[in-house]
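Predict both folds.
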Amino acid sequence: MPEQITVGELTARFLEACGVDTAFGVISIHNMPILDAFGRRNAIRFVPSRGEAGAVNMADAFARVRGHLGVAVTSTGTAAGNAAGAMVEARTAGTPLLHITGQIELPYLDRGWSYIHEAHDQPGMLKAVSKAFFRVWSPDSALGVLQEAVRCALTAPTGPVSVEIPIDVQEALVPLPASLAPLPVVAAAPSAAALDELADRLATAKRPLIWLGGGARHAGEEVRALADLGFIVVTSVQGRGILPEQDERSLGAFNVSAPVEDFYKSCDALLVVGSRLRGNETLKYNLKLPRPLYQIDADPQAHGRGYTADYFVAGDAKLALAGLVARLSGRSKIDPRFAADARNARAAAEKQLRDSLGPYDALVAALQKAVPSDFVWVRDVTVSNSTWGNRLLKIDGPRNGVHALGGGIGMGAAMGVGAALAANGRKTVALSGDGGLMLNLGELATAVQENADLMLIVMNDNGYGVIRNIQDAKFGGRHYYADLHTPSFSDLAKALGWKHYSLSNIADAEALVAKVAAEAGPRMLEVDMTAIGPFASAFAGPPVRKAS
């Protein structure tokens, strides 16, 4: 007779078969059978976060850095609601993530009885923030549901998937399956005829530009091959590092700077790969991009979103670009001045940005000097990231940059913990503002508990700096609700077990940053912006341009 195991243990064994070695979450009465199996089997490291939002943020960042499935385990009802906001971020970023939530017992489910821990229309809530939602209705169906959920999360366009497993289903016994293997994930193959046509069109271009998004992160080899043929690369925030930003053929993420805009005017073709050309990275779709505009995307529904495509190829970025390289080799006739013009445009964009930083240019220079080239760079939404964090520090790999892409504040510390645990010994640096840090403060305790090798830079301007700047620019300098009580981060760090350092004189930046970067474990560098002074140019929200 086959061995009998609980569905909770089945879940643990299946995740092990998927190669999952780390998961995040909060233990509860509605997920104990799963987490008990985690503990007994000791094959998956479970990281107890201090909140469900933090757990999903950690799993999200872990998946982005590791390039594999992220896993978060939460309870039901209010707990699932706490996770939902972080699921919005994972959905925006297209992170392959499995969110397992418990649920109340099947006999009481969906009866409208106000049963404790039940949320009204939890499936509707989770469907709204997930790529897909599944509920396990019976013990015998558990494995099939989990297999399909993981396949869905990992299939391009990737995204977070939620699975509800009622507590009585988790506790039920089922025979140990003969195989727990995950379902195969099949990349969408582009049409050979479509690639022929696209190659014919690109072969005539003398100054072709590639715009890379997160959907091309696995196509680094093919991107380098196209760069070798003479193509120049520019990226969205999600596409950073696909071509290392130290490479002179990369414009990095300087996609909306004036010098790069001028450079676009000289390009005679644009190939957009795995990017949604998001509004905040295209001046709300008013950025003048080169024409003709060609597009490759695994999602056929991306065709024509935001910008009209002159030709579209549906398919996996790596497969499509490999096909293009084979078809363009020996055919491309690139303008010999193109690469030099790109270098000049990037240099001008970098200088323009550095000039806008005022004293903080020294901080950026100190950071770039102190960290190894393969460091992991995590950024919360804050003035400093919007000005320099998203562009200036060079990222050398497609999995080395993590940013709160959806624009919500407060995720930086939790994402920093998840990234640090995924980094396999590489240095991890996270950037946060004082206001954003307060939203997920409890995860600083998680970092200590897990001994995360994380350097957290807190840009402290005693409130919501970008809000104050917008109020100065548009509301007559009336600062309502942006000036916040700010704790002593030194005392806070001491209470939580973090090392704390303070930078109040920019002349000390190089030595202090080098010292903090060289250490290990959780350590906080607080940058006293009131002492150092303002940026040379105030950031008052993403740049916009009215349609002409």
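Second protein follows, with its predicted structure tokens after the sequence.
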Amino acid sequence: MKLNKEILLNVNNLCVRTIENSQHQNLIDGVSFDIKKNEIVGLIGESGSGKSLTSLNILGLLEKNKFDISGEIIFNGNNLLDLDNNAMIKIRGAEISMIFQEPMSALNPTMKIGEQIFEVFKAHKNLSFEHTTKRIKKLIKKVKLDNVENLLDKYPHQISGGQKQRVMIVMALSCNPQLLIADEPTTALDVTIQKEIIEILKDLQKSEKLSILFISHDLRLVSNISDKILIMRNGKIIEQGSNKNILNYPKENYTKALLSLIIHDKKRLKKLPTVESFDKNFKEEAETKKERNKRIKNIYSGKPILEIKNVSKFYNTSKNLFRNNKSFKALSQISLKLFKGETLGLIGESGSGKTTLSNAILKIHEFEKGEILFKGKDISKIKERELLEFRKNVQIIFQDPYASLNPLQNIFQIISEPIKFHRICLKNEVYEKCKELITDVGLYENFLSRYPHELSGGQRQRVCIARAISVNPEVLICDESVSALDVSIQATVLNLLNLLKKKYNFTYIFISHDLSVVKYMSDKIIVLYNGKIVDYQDADLLFEKPKDNYTKKLIKASY
């Protein structure tokens, strides 16, 4: 085969099958693509599509006794699949490096940042301390990390998520690799930090003359960095082409569906398309201005169900023998009104006060100043019996459905527990109530006998929703409730939340860092920054005429 000198990596008919059981499941099925020198290739796929498995194959990190691997991965003229572990160790990190999805898991919590970076150099480069230090400082400057000496002397837990991800980039590029694999490098980062990381990678690609395989489930993110896009589904590359062709002229229905799942900016659809609905010739139906105005008028014509007046919350930051306590304002003079049937969006980056505010509303944390009134009653003054009723009426759906479900309980036990505690129905009616709830969230009766580990992420989140609504609440706090889900599953859950809202007349506080999701779901939006409300207005108007520079910054980073 004649090799193209411009091609750095060629994956040809890669197949991966499990050999641990008799089923021999195909995990990767005939994957073929190439990456040219100085090219950024985006690999798009949902959970289980095989994208991370493909990257692990390139790095030679799959246990060969557990998988049947065939095909070719040609890098610089060598088939990586033919190389032994010792040969791959020399390539891994030096010629092909990787930025992992979760930096906290990839970094050693017992070692200082500087020690970990130096360790990478020692493994692959025989350089003097002076040259190593010079290279590290140069890279740290390129990834825009400040106060180098101080940073190198810190442990991973002492720096932010964005800083940790920048450290991972430094470590990945320390040995001048030719190919960088970035596996979901912006997951769990704030939108402004995401944009910064993308810009850093683009600049480094040019200055370091890198080729990059950028793996993500976020098509919008990939489109901002890639020259070429690969669409992966069920272990296959179903479509590939230039950034322009994939975004403007998609051929496959699945690609068209993924593009349609990027929530519309200018129109508010009554129902979001899903991959399944797209296959059934989904027709868009947008809410008219007249319909929206009528709905908004109905919501805000009554009295608020929840009212927050000048709430402030303080946290102590230091306490030792030699220093007095220091405190900072997590919330500062927060005031808002929540109306029956409203969806109030709450956006802001990490540390803005979103979770602190929701915890104050739920009476999980006490607040030092101000009032929170639920149906006119100050929740700080209600008695124990009234508190139980309040907790029944104000429920929360958490970000991570797996962490919030007891792995030792089946789904029936999980959903029935609050029903029994709050005596929602008679004992002999509990099962039927659970059956009704599981059906309401789009699952089947047989799910009641299953355990959380037997369910997908989207199914687990539906169970969390069923549990939250089981006690007939009036207010539901959705705390990043779709952020951990694939885009198609996000659409399904968002549609479900809107359906349940209509059926039960719920009132939502919808917390998210995804501005497009918040805009789609919300009637009004609050923007929090450093514990303060910096913007508070109609959802559509906020995006058209943001009042604060911070709001403008968030919008710019998101679109």
